[in-house]
Amino acid sequence: MTTETIIERTGDKPAKISFGRLWDTWGVTAILILLLLCTPAIAPGFLEVENLQSVLRESAYVGIVAVGMTFAIASGAFDLSVGGQLALTSVVSLMAFSGGGTAAAIAAAIVTGLLCGLVNAGLITRLRVPPFVATLGSLFVFRGIAYLLTQDGPKTLPYSQIHSPFVKLGSLNIAGLPLPFIIMVAVFAGGWILLRRTAIGRRTLAYGSSPSAARFCGISDTRIRLFVFGLVGLTVGIAALTYITRVWTADGSAQDGFELKVIAAVVLGGTALKGGKGTLVGTFSAVFLVSVLNEVLVSRGVESAYQRIVLGCVLIVALTIDGLRTRFAGPGSFRRAITGLIPRKTTQATS
Fold first, then answer.
1. d(C-alpha 177, C-alpha 59), whole Å
2. Cβ count near 36 (within 10 Å)
3. DSSP state of 161
4. Where are the beta strands (DSSP E) in 34-192?
């Protein structure tokens, strides 16, 4: 993780600590390390190699979509339809595999995910539907289509295909690392370059910071929306490949609530809900925090209902942290807040 300077000095003035920078630099990573240190007591055997490989494999599809969601939230929008996109893309990919093999399944997943993203972009740019409403509606549409395609039962991979190249996308290990995790790292690396080293990445952040100012500078609303939601769809297509080759089955109910996991990871990672700021490094750490927490709950036999409660609490905490980070973003703001809590001594005038 790239270390940012959290103490600013101006001449001989004392150091000023920015809570926002402090959290962005160390917050999520520190909590993740603390959680990992506590897991032997909470869930004995959790840190075994096979279990850690399972965590890396499980976190891959969440992390891949979180890359696209980071761009969306940094631009000032949400995509609440990623769960429906994942279900539909997974079903279509399995259907394509049964008819055309590995190449057809991969192409179907990528194309379907990209088309889902472009549908959202069209609703927002052409019909002027707010992103929140458009993606909430398309969430149900995509899941509904997936249900229609699986009326005769969930689509599955036959056990006879256990050694096929397609199945190995989710099961293969390279140098001890699961292939889905390696794919996720590659997507994060590409996303970081796109966000920090290209014009479209800088324009996305500029648009999220101030849409009106961005438009004044010649940045197109339509192009930003097409890019952002198309990218989300593309990442869903890639994630679906790592997901279905791990679970081997898909229908309209696949990964219900998936969008909450992704949004929680992105916001926890430091991407500002109001837009204009995105950090893929923070998102990367937050994805593992959410995944480790989920795996710990599963290993302890916690019921799915309570797992949802915990996930909801994590999302609330993420939103609270985002508000605090915004409040204490300026240099010295944290010190001023602490100073304000200490009552000042008053002196009485003497006659």
1. 13
2. 16
3. G
4. 155-156, 173-174, 177-178
Structural domain containing residue 265: 15-338
Q: What are phi and psi of 47, to 5 degrees?
A: -85, 10
Residue 37 lies in a domain: yes
Model pLDDT for residues 167-207, shown as the tens digit of each residue: 999 989 999 999 999 999 999 999 999 999 999 999 999 99
- Structure token pair of residue 348: 């009485």
Nearest C-alpha neighbor of 64 from the set 175, 177, 186, 195: 186
Q: What is the Cα–Cα distance from 224 to 220, expressed in whole angstroms?
A: 6
Instruction: Measure the CA–CA gap between 155 and 183, rounded to whole angstroms.
Output: 24
Number of domains in the chain: 1
For residue 334, count other CB atoms closer than 10 A to its CB. 22
User: Which pTM value belongs to this model?
Assistant: 0.85
Give the 3-state secondary structure of residue 156. Answer: strand
Residue type, 64: I
Tokens linked to 46: 């959790």
The answer as to whether 62 is a domain residue is yes
CA distance 92 to 346: 72
Domain assignment present for residue 1? The answer is: no
Can you tell me the distance from the alpha carbon of 60 to that of 78, in angstroms, rounded to the nearest whole number? 21
Record the tokens describing residue 47, joined without a space.
């840190």
What is the token pair recorded at 91? 């079903």
Query: Hunting for tokens 């995944």 — which residue is that?
Result: 291
